[in-house]
Amino acid sequence: MTATLEKSIRFVAVPGSHISDRKAAIYGPELVRLRAQGVHMIPSAVVDAARPRHSPLHDAFTWNDQAAAAERRLQQARYLLASIAFVPSQSDETEEEPEPIRYFTVLAIEAADGSSFQEYIPLNVVHEDPDLEREMLRHALAELSWFRRKYARLREIDNLVNWHGLDLLLAANGVPG
Question: Are 60 and 19 within 8 A, CB to CB?
Fold first, then answer.
């Protein structure tokens, strides 16, 4: 992108992210500015740029080491849950070993008080519960919709996928396209 085009961009938060649109409107231009100054957009460089208290990125990070350590352990737990897979039983008809499948899937669950939270649920539990399976389908459709937006300019992808079929599924399941 050219610097002129980047100045005209309205930055917003990715749906489901932990930052607000207001914060994205602050962080986005600062990241563009840093990149224009030759800063590589790698996590360590972004943290270094955010260290000074006057940096627009400073409040995106937890600077209290005790709190940051607790957040890091939560991040490690998410990584652990997302890293466990199982190998399905092999049928006698095939000699190839089946590909591993993630054991847990993360779904938005509504609590009794109306709030929602993310829970990692074993796939077999999801497939035994129609409500969970419907939520997993909605999540998958939202990811496909995001994929389409992200790669919209790649003609090879556009020619490969039946977007009309996706639009029908999105509409039928109440997922924004």
Answer: yes
Please compute Rg for the chain using Cα positions: 21
Cα distance between the two ends of the chain: 25
| Amino acid identity, position 112 | A
Separation of alpha carbons 104 and 116, rounded Å: 18
Band of residue 52 on the pLDDT scale cut at 50, 70, 90: very high
Q: Which residues have a Cβ under 8 Å from the Cβ of 168 and sit 6 or more positions away? A: none
Render pLDDT for 123-173 as a digit per residue (tens, 0 to 9).
999 999 999 999 999 888 888 888 888 887 887 777 767 676 777 777 787
The dihedral region occupied by 37, where left means phi > 0, alpha psi between -120 and 50, and beta the remainder, is alpha
Beta bridge partners of 110: 116
Domain parsing of the chain, residue ranges: 3-60, 62-102, 104-177
CA 75 to chain centroid = 14
Q: Are 132 and 125 in contact (CB under 8 A)?
A: yes
Strands (E) across the chain are located at 85-86, 101-102, 104-110, 116-122
User: What are the counts of helices (DSSP H) followed by strands (DSSP E) for the chain?
Assistant: 8, 4
Rounded alpha-carbon distances, angstroms, from residue 176 to 106, 110, 146: 19, 19, 10
